[in-house]
Amino acid sequence: TVQAGDSVWLIADQNGITMNQLRDWNNIQNDFVYPGQKLTVSKGSSSNNSNNNSSSSSHNSSGGSYTVKAGDSVWLIADQNGITMDQLRDWNNIQNNFVYPGQKLTVSNGSSSSSSSNNSSSSNTQHKVKSGDSLWLISQEYDISVSRLKSINNLNSDTIFIGQNLKVS
C-alpha cells in the first residue's frame, strides 16, 4: 500500500524490483502513485523477467557501451550496469534524464568503482544541497538508500532545500 512520500523508484527499490516491473505489473502509465493505492510488488516470474532483461541488455552493450531501447531510462541503464546515474550522465554529457532509443551510451569507465567507495568510507560526512539535487541523486553519490538518507536526517518528505546540510553516513 502506497504511503505519503512514496515514489515508483522508492517502492521498486525497497522491493528489489525494477521500476519497469512495478509499472507493468500495476498498469502505471507514468510515475504517479498515490497514498492508499495497492500495488503488486512481486510476481512468481520476477527473477525470470530480471534475467531476461539482463540478457537483452547485454546484447545491446559491448565494450562498455550500451544502445538505448524503448522503455529505458537513465536510472534503469545505470542500475543494470552497476553505475550511478551521475556517472552515466557525466560520461555521456546528458544534461537531464532524457535518453532516446538508438542512442549509444558509455556505461563503463576505469575509475567508476573507486569514486563511490571513497564517498562511502568517510564517516559523519555531510552534503550541502545545491541546485538540481534530489534525495535520489544524493543517495547515488554516497551509495546509501533514499530511505536511509531520510531516516538519518529525520526527513518526513522528499523535499530538500538549496543550502541545506544533509548527513550522508
Structure description:
The chain is globular. The protein starts with 7 loop residues before the first helix and ends with a strand. It folds into three domains: 1-43, Roll (Membrane-bound Lytic Murein Transglycosylase D, Chain A), CATH 3.10.350; 55-109, LysM domain (Membrane-bound Lytic Murein Transglycosylase D, Chain A, Roll), CATH 3.10.350.10; 112-167, LysM domain (Membrane-bound Lytic Murein Transglycosylase D, Chain A, Roll). Helix 1 crosses helix 2 (19-26) and helix 4 packs across helix 5 (85-92). It has 169 residues and is mostly helical. The relative contact order is 0.12. It has helices spanning 8-14, 19-26, 46-60, 74-80, 85-92, 112-121, 135-142, 146-152; strands at residues 61-62, 65-67, 104-106, 126-128, 165-167. Mean pLDDT is 76; it is low at 45-61 and 111-122.
Reconstruct the topology from this structure.
Elements: H1 8-14, H2 19-26, H3 46-60, E1 61-62, E2 65-67, H4 74-80, H5 85-92, E3 104-106, H6 112-121, E4 126-128, H7 135-142, H8 146-152, E5 165-167
Antiparallel strand pairs: 1-2, 2-3, 4-5
Helix pairs in contact: 1-2, 4-5
